[in-house]
Amino acid sequence: MVNSVPNPRLNGATGELAMARFTNHPEKGRFFMVSRKTKIALIATLGATVAMGVTGAFAADPKAKWCEGVKIAAFPGGPQGGVFANNVYNGFRQAELDLGPTVTYYFSDWDPNKMLTQIKQAIATKVDGIATYGFGGEDATGPLVDQAFKQGTIFTSLNTSLLKSQEKYSASGFGYVGAPNYKAGFALGSEAAKRAGLKSGEKVFVWGLKGQGGDRGQRTVGVIDAFEKAGAKVIYQEIDSATNADPNAGTATFVGVMKKDSDIKIVVTDHGGLTSNVSVYAKAASLKPGQVLFAGFDMSPNTAKAIEDGYQNLVIDQQPFLQGYIPILNICLTKKFGFSGLDINTAGAFVDKSNVAAVAPLAAVEIR
User: Fold this and answer.
1) Whose CA, among 34, 64, 122, 347, lies 20 to 30 Å from 133?
2) Residue 147's closest CA among 136, 139, 155?
3) Tens digit of pLDDT for each residue in 214-262?
4) Distance from C-alpha of 342 to C-alpha of 305, rounded to nearest angstrom
5) What is the largest CA-CA distance in the chain?
6) Distance between CA 303 and CA 311 in Å, rounded?
7) Do the domains 71-179+320-348 and 181-317 sit in the same CATH topology, yes or no?
8) Superfamily of domain 181-317
9) CA-closest candidate to residue 37, choices 59, 13, 53, 61
10) Which residues pair with 77 in a beta bridge?
């Protein structure tokens, strides 16, 4: 069966009535048959459409506060006003200002159990989206992710991944913004060993959160694996809950470790708050700048100053501001336009004395 359909839009281009002819065929399917004049007209029309570019009738106009009306629960971590959490919080707030959603904030003092309880509270409020850490691990957090998506709440993670949940719900908006934690830990340990000229049998002190398990614990495991690969003797200390919430609480612990093993060559603090406190720890243990190589995670005003003073030697900058900003953007893009989850690695660089001057001004205002 062949049908001819008048197309007046092509009339002006050809000087005569153009007929777009199509054929239905049970095997070959549906296709168009056009004359040479019609082909010329089509090319002319398409050229005119392309020439219009983004100003044409099909272009979407930019809109301020395009995420207005969307309600989001955001988790900076904690404590409120603390190191790292403040950078994430600043990223959240900037995204809230730029995009227009209504954001409720939950600070958890870095306590995974408190965070899980707060996630349950956020789900109960039926917000449009939740941006939080994966500290609770997959076993504890996975069922909450299921519950959230079942009721239409977009769930996404920052800093610490939930890989199974992300795989399950990535098409529905579950993303991850942060470092690949094991790789980041291994990279820091390897670089610290290289810079210190670490030899087999020499001692290193790793102060971390291996016992927390999940992806967060894997960062500490990565550091330890790097040192063990280099043949070092690893002295490990789990960060207790008091020090996790307040780094000053760990000063006596640090002094005790360093007095017991005064020949420690490298110290790694696997915690932004502890890294910001390195100068306090070193002075309390009567260490001079450069006597021990200190390596750690995350920039802060105190960490920048410690690098400048020679106490802190190496830091991985996770860019926590982005770990706040992009998850809000992720939720807004999914809620408004149906985009899938974003997966962003924010830990791309080391900071040391050679480049700290470029980062320090941003660290001072808690953006870096």
Assistant:
1) 64
2) 155
3) 899 999 999 999 999 999 999 999 999 999 999 999 999 999 999 999 9
4) 34
5) 96
6) 9
7) yes
8) Response regulator (3.40.50.2300)
9) 13
10) 107
Domain 71-179+320-348: which topology? Rossmann fold (3.40.50)
Q: For residue 90, which amino acid is it?
A: N
- Three-state SS string over the chain comes to CEEEEECHHHHHHHCCCCEEEEEEECCCEEEEECCHHHHHHHHHHHHHHHHHHHHCCCCCCCCCCCCCCCEEEEEEECCCCCCCHHHHHHHHHHHHHHHCCEEEEEECCCCHHHHHHHHHHHHHCCCCEEEEECCCHHHHHHHHHHHHHHCCCEEEEECCCCHHHHHHHHHHCCCEEECCHHHHHHHHHHHHHHHHCCCCCCEEEEEECHHHCHHHHHHHHHHHHHHHHCCCEEEEEECCHHHHHCHHHHHHHHHHHHHHCCCEEEEEECCHHHHCCHHHHHHHCCCCCCCCEEEEECCCHHHHHHHHHCCCCEEEECCHHHHHHHHHHHHHHHHHHCCCCCEEECCCEEECCCCHHHHHHHHHCCCC
Structural domain boundaries of the chain?
2-52, 71-179+320-348, 181-317
Q: Give pLDDT tens digits for 301-344.
A: 999 999 999 999 999 999 999 999 999 999 999 999 999 999 99
Structure tokens at 86: 């403040």
**Token pair belonging to 2:** 């062949």
Residues in Cβ contact with 274 at an 8 Å cutoff, skipping those fewer than 6 apart: 207, 239, 243, 247, 250, 281, 296
Q: What is the CA radius of gyration of the chain?
A: 28
pLDDT in tens, 346-355: 987 899 999 9
